[in-house]
């Protein structure tokens, strides 16, 4: 119950982590089923329809429900601590964002049990995703589930923007902000400008499928390429929404474990902003083969290649940070170091794909699959593992086992390279993506088998991680404030896990890497910027949960409005929008309650603060 | 520019009550950001509409359909409601609660009038012209863009209506002021969006 009503950013971080981990597991199982099917030619492990559902759900789940919430978990756990704040700007909205995300994800996955999962690919290209070609309710689950989950993401992004703009501790100027906070800030801004586009795209597709609208129906004047434009003007920035926080994590981890200040801090900041800006300008590079013409293809080609410049700046800055540092290869740092070459390789194939004429060859082959898995798994997932190992003691007060962590790292990264390295060559010799099987003796057999073995090795790596978590959670809470001894930023100046008010006194920031600066000056604690006084805390509330539940019911009701259930009562309540209305009434009703009853929160008094003490 | 009224009341209430607390400032800032996101939302809808506006299939085209005098009247009503919401915020800055809730009520009534005109317009098309969401790609784009705006107006009416009630119950203070200020921002935004709709959908539709 405590977990349903919490508005504490650290607890919401754990909720995001658990939910994200759960969906990550589902997406992983889907991936393994795909690899089993493709392990040998002419396999009949799953049918073509099931294979379509698996690839669709694997992509959708991993992007929207797997990695996204784990990023949000890290952001929630770390940002307020890094900027010296007691909480986020809107604790209520923080909780609301989580619950809408969770209910959206649950709705999407309900499709497995309610007549068939979405089967039009994670991009849901029209006309494949229209009623004519996608017969089940699968795509409806996709459009409405993602709509609800996307709402949660947008709310989260807005909250982080406000938090970072207004709640930084005294002395923490923008150019003294830790790199992870910076990349999260830029990511949140990208979420703000990218997600409303997909909101509209999903609405259009929903209207086409449920209300009989004609946005993508060619016979009535609709335009299927419109979907691709709308999807990718969101979808391309989304790639950077995912990778930028990972860049932030890598920057923190590498600088901590090299015992050196991040090389080229300000160039890192501007590279981040430049990547975000260019990320919005290149969406049509996914559409070179739709026939936009040579001018558009050339412009988008060049714009795409430009992104290599700020990304290269970042890569070299990480290398220069390590150069001459006293490097310690903890698990977190192993993941960070493993990230660099893998991500560079994903970037290089990215430049290859950005060349429009070459893309005509690579398009829809396994080369593309290899490329984006190098970026997203070899970049983002390695970054997330680095971040989780690094901040685990801060989040839970226990250090993960380094021994198991190293086993995890090696099985995961070797498995990863086995899985995806060969896929480049599979693509180059002509294996298509999205096809559920292939004929023997085309040169695909051995490489596919290697790829499948690699995928299972990655699975073993993840299981080792789960075992590590299980074993660690039995240990007592007892991590030091600064368990790595070399912590540079504010989160390491307070106990692990932090008390619910984070900072007894808001610290005074006197430079970049605030805590390191104090340690270098011989202090063990931050200088406070305010006297000890009562701390105002927001009250827990169930309303965000209820609001999201209402949206969930409304979405489920809306999906079935044109169905015939063969039961007059069910037909009546669904076909007359009664279920939809009921759900919306629950949501708007709780919004009304929220509006009518002011909640002034509560205070933690001074003596209570002193009783608890700041020293761990 | 400070008005004499504002100076008179500086001893009793802060000059900008909505920004007197951190929470209030956060709300105003975040709402600006939110409107940035809303701009993308409407921008995408406009792009969709512009792509499909001549795709009428065998249904009527814009120039056959639209009734400009009525839409112009609706536009005028909505623009005036934006002005009355400015009066409301000015009244709030003077600390005049009565005038504030009066102007807010006028704003809500004008919004309601706009909405009634729009519903009437949609009904005309649907019943008399047999023109619906399913007629053509143009009709889908038209109803979606204008309907999204209409839903925003409806939400604004309900929202400001509740705020008038809150104002009566709780008075004008640091909790209610940011809410009222933010709702006025919202109201201006949907007004600006309507100006674009009137230009791009109705005027352009009539001449093309």
TrEMBL record, chain B:
<comment type="similarity">
    <text>Belongs to the cytochrome c oxidase subunit 3 family.</text>
</comment>
<dbReference type="Pfam" id="PF00510">
    <property type="entry name" value="COX3"/>
</dbReference>
<dbReference type="InterPro" id="IPR013833">
    <property type="entry name" value="Cyt_c_oxidase_su3_a-hlx"/>
</dbReference>
<feature type="transmembrane region" description="Helical">
    <location>
        <begin position="101"/>
        <end position="120"/>
    </location>
</feature>
<feature type="transmembrane region" description="Helical">
    <location>
        <begin position="140"/>
        <end position="164"/>
    </location>
</feature>
<feature type="domain" description="Heme-copper oxidase subunit III family profile">
    <location>
        <begin position="31"/>
        <end position="206"/>
    </location>
</feature>
<dbReference type="InterPro" id="IPR024791">
    <property type="entry name" value="Cyt_c/ubiquinol_Oxase_su3"/>
</dbReference>
<dbReference type="InterPro" id="IPR033946">
    <property type="entry name" value="Ubiquinol_oxase_su3_dom"/>
</dbReference>
<feature type="transmembrane region" description="Helical">
    <location>
        <begin position="70"/>
        <end position="89"/>
    </location>
</feature>
<keyword id="KW-0812">Transmembrane</keyword>
<keyword id="KW-1003">Cell membrane</keyword>
<keyword id="KW-0472">Membrane</keyword>
<feature type="transmembrane region" description="Helical">
    <location>
        <begin position="185"/>
        <end position="205"/>
    </location>
</feature>
<dbReference type="InterPro" id="IPR000298">
    <property type="entry name" value="Cyt_c_oxidase-like_su3"/>
</dbReference>
<protein>
    <submittedName>
        <fullName>Cytochrome c oxidase subunit 3</fullName>
    </submittedName>
</protein>
<feature type="transmembrane region" description="Helical">
    <location>
        <begin position="29"/>
        <end position="50"/>
    </location>
</feature>
<keyword id="KW-1133">Transmembrane helix</keyword>
<dbReference type="InterPro" id="IPR035973">
    <property type="entry name" value="Cyt_c_oxidase_su3-like_sf"/>
</dbReference>
């Amino acid at each position: 119950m405590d977990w349903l009503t919490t508005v504490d950013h650290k607890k919401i971080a754990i909720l995001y982590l658990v939910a994200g981990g759960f969906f990550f597991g589902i997406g992983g199982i889907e991936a393994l089923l795909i690899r089993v099917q493709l392990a040998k030619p002419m396999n009949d492990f799953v049918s073509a329809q099931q294979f379509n559902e698996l690839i669709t759900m694997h992509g959708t789940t991993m992007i929207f429900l797997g990695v996204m919430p784990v990023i949000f978990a890290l952001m929630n756990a770390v940002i307020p601590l890094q900027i010296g704040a007691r909480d986020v700007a809107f604790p209520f909205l923080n909780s609301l964002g989580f619950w809408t995300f969770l209910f959206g994800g649950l709705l999407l996955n309900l499709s497995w049990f309610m007549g068939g999962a979405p089967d039009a690919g994670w991009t849901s290209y029209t006309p494949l995703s229209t009623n004519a070609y996608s017969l089940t309710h699968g795509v409806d689950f996709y459009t409405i589930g993602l709509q609800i989950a996307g709402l949660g993401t947008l709310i989260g992004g807005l909250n982080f923007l406000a938090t970072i703009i207004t709640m930084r501790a005294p002395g923490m100027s923008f150019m003294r902000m830790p790199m992870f906070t910076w990349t999260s800030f830029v990511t949140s801004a990208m979420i703000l400008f990218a997600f409303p586009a997909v909101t509209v795209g999903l609405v259009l597709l929903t209207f086409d499928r449920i209300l009989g609208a004609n946005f993508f129906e060619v016979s009535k004047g609709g335009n299927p390429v419109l979907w691709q434009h709308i999807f990718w003007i969101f979808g391309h920035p989304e790639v950077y929404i995912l990778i930028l926080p990972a860049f932030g994590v890598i920057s923190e981890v590498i600088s901590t474990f090299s015992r050196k200040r991040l090389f080229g801090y300000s160039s890192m900041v501007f590279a981040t902003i430049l990547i975000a800006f260019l990320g919005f300008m290149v969406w049509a590079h996914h559409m070179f083969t739709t026939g936009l013409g040579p001018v558009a293809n050339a412009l988008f080609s060049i714009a795409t290649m430009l992104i290599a410049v700020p990304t290269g700046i970042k890569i070299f800055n990480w290398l220069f940070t390590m150069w001459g540092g006293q490097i310690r290869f903890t698990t977190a740092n192993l993941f960070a170091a493993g990230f660099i070459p893998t991500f560079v390789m994903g970037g290089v194939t990215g430049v290859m794909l950005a060349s429009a004429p070459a893309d005509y060859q690579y398009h829809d082959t396994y080369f593309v699959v290899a490329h984006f898995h190098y970026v997203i798994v070899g970049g983002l997932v390695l970054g997330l593992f680095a971040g989780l190992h690094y901040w685990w003691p801060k989040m839970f007060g226990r250090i993960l086992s380094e021994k198991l962590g190293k086993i995890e790292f090696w099985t995961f990264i070797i498995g990863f390279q086995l899985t995806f390295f060969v896929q480049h060559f599979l693509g180059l010799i002509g294996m298509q993506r999205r096809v559920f099987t292939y004929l023997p003796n085309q040169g695909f057999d051995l490489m596919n088998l290697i790829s499948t073995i690699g995928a299972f090795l990655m699975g073993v790596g993840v299981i080792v991680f789960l075992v590590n978590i299980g074993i660690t959670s039995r240990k007592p809470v007892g991590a030091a404030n600064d368990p790595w001894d070399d912590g540079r930023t504010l989160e390491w100046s307070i106990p692990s896990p932090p008390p619910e008010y984070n900072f007894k006194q808001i610290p005074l920031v006197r430079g970049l890497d605030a805590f390191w600066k104090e340690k270098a000056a011989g202090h063990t604690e931050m200088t406070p910027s305010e006297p000890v006084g009562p701390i105002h805390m927001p009250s827990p509330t169930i309303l965000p949960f209820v609001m999201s539940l209402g949206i969930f019911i409304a979405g489920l009701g809306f999906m079935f409005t044109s169905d015939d259930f063969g039961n007059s009562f069910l037909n009546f309540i669904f076909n007359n929008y009664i279920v939809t209305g009921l759900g919306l009434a629950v949501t708007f009703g709780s919004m009304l309650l929220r509006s009518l009853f002011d909640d002034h929160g509560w205070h933690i008094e001074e003596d209570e603060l002193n009783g608890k003490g700041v020293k761990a | 520019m400070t008005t004499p009224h504002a100076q008179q009341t500086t001893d009793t209430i802060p000059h900008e009550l909505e920004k007197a607390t951190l929470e209030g400032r956060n709300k105003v800032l975040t709402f600006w950001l939110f409107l940035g996101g809303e701009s993308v939302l409407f921008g995408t809808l406009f792009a969709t509409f512009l792509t499909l506006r001549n795709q009428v299939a065998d249904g009527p085209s814009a120039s056959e359909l639209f009734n400009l005098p009525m839409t112009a009247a609706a536009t005028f009503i909505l623009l005036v409601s934006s002005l009355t919401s400015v009066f409301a915020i000015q009244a709030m800055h003077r600390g005049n609660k009565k005038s504030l809730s009066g102007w807010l009520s006028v704003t809500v009534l004008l919004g309601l009038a706009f909405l009634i005109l729009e519903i009437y317009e949609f009904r005309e098309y649907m019943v008399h012209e047999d023109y619906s969401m399913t007629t053509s790609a143009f009709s889908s784009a038209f109803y979606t863009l204008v309907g999204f705006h209409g839903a925003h107006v409806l939400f604004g009416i309900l929202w400001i209506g509740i705020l008038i009630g809150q104002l009566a119950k709780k008075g004008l203070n640091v909790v209610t002021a940011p809410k009222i200020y933010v709702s006025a921002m919202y109201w201006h935004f949907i007004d600006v969006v309507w100006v674009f709709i009137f230009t791009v959908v109705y005027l352009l539709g009539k001449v093309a």
